[in-house]
Amino acid sequence: PPTPFTDLLPPPEQMWKEDSAHGLTAPIGEGPHGRPVLLTLGDYPPHALIGGPSGTGKTNLIFAWIGALAARYSPAELEFYLLDFKEGVSFARFAQGRRDPSWLPHMRLVGINVNTDREFGLALLRFLAEELRRRADAAKKHEVTKLAELRAVDPTGHWPRIVAVVDEFQALLAGRDVVAREAADLLEDLARRGRSQGIHLVLASQDVRGIEALWGRPALVAQFTLRIALPKALRILAERNDAAQALPKYHAVVNAESGMTEGNEVARIPSASDWETWSELQHRLWRMRPADAAPARLFDGDAVPRLTDAPDFRALTPAAGDAPPRGPVALLGEIIDVQARSAALRLPRAPGRNLAVLGTRVDEACAVLDAAARSLARQHRPGAARYSIACLDPDADPAARALYEDLADDAAWYDEETVPELMAETTEALGRPGTPATPHYLFLFAVDAAAGALSRGTGGRSGLDRLRRILHDGPERRTHVLAWWRGVARMRADLGGPAARTDQIGAWVALDVQGGELGSSLYPGTGGPDWYPRPWRGLFFDRAVHRTGQVIIPYGPSR
Ligand SMILES: Nc1ncnc2c1ncn2[C@@H]1O[C@H](COP(=O)(O)OP(=O)(O)OP(=O)(O)O)[C@@H](O)[C@H]1O
Ligand SMILES: [Mg+2]
Prior knowledge:
With about 550 residues, the protein is α/β, with parallel strands linked by helices. The chain has helices at about 60-70, 120-140, 145-155, 170-175, 180-195, 210-215, 220, 275-285, 310-315, 360-375, 395-405, 420-430, 450-455, 465-475, 490-495, and strands spanning about 25-30, 35-40, 50, 80-85, 105-110, 160-165, 200-205, 225-230, 250-255, 265-270, 295-300, 330-335, 340-345, 355-360, 385-390, 410-415, 440-445, 455-460, 460, 480-485, 505-510, 540, 550-555. The protein is about 30% helix and about 20% strand.
């Protein structure tokens, strides 16, 4: 009979008793003579590659390994970061859920349905690179070189071993673009230097191409000396080692010698990933968690975050006293990052502090402007700011109306007929001496549709002239435009034609706009950013703070 998962676990009273200073060792299954086959991560071998065709049990093996480790080492000794690029929610159970309030106490981050959000994989690698630097600095300060030594000289420090697991990692390296290149560079650096600092990488892939993407970097692959091949796995073991070809179902070749035949050990892997089997262990460990343990951050590429759940939104409060805040921030969406942070546009009294949302996607554009308005409103007491909302696209009406109603007495509503009045009143206010004490935010939905109404002149100036004047002179006088144009060319036309300057647009969010359209004067360098539009994602660029664009996830509708 197959070994049960519980065979991989120590008895309950022995749980969390191991010390990870020199490495992490746990059984993964049963060998030919009933002896457990052990997997070790440490100075040698430091990192693992798992391979096998679809359905051979890679994800199950990851569950079994994580369980065997998590039962032996406490969260102070071991932390996990886990990313799954494929569809499927199986790893979600490591984080706190609606159905099951437990979580795996060692888990710091779970990314599921990452799919095309390769920036999230990049963010994890950058985060680990930063942790690597922090550890290397601490080691240097204590004049040691390795994690075991650092822990000996700094016994009160928090230096757990970190295991970062990336399932279907080939997705991260797919595409020959800047994301893939940076990911490969970071992986290479982490693989080379992570070993001595207790940062271990476990990469799993069914796809030979993923492995081959690595094969182009022999220095990187050479660091992954622990190889785990499931039945019929290709290229995980050394070239003439075909032990995986004849493996029975649910077995694995475990090889800690870079796949050389002499290192082969065959293990029968228990079933670990079904709900009941797994959750029994997780519940036990969850009940053992330290009092201050927090659940893992769950990033779900298929979920739409909510503004009201965002820590940065909750932290906003009105400025003390009567003075308006010096640098109010407009939150625009969630950044694709290890922490759930908001992309924030600062609106101090300085030239260019306006926002353009660019593209034809109505829901996304409304979501960005809505989050901006609601976050600004949270920083002003009632009566301490004005919000003018102009909506020129009937499809955006429900969202703009809901915002208008929620902003209540501080908001005014404009449409195609009345938008010229908004421009006239606002420029008139800018003409008065002194700086108004009350900020004025203009939210213009589909403003390009107003071009006709605004091109008619009154009093010698057209509404478009006035809009340009507001964009140009407003921000220094607490008057900021946050406008959605349904295309870059339309925005340029409103600003004065294809060659018009765009420095009054200090920041933008691009939706379904190709990177190439964002070149010349909107983005540093030539040719525009590497941006491929995708549903419910935007590229945010603030020329005052960014060197490159930042991918954001708009917050879901507030109602
Ligand atoms: N050792 C095992 N014992 C019993 N059942 C297993 C074992 N390993 C995997 N299974 C079962 O086989 C199925 C496929 O396993 P799993 O999802 O781990 O494969 P995979 O290699 O990750 O596939 P994919 O590449 O499609 O993600 C699952 O239903 C799982 O429960
Ligand atoms: Mg899988």
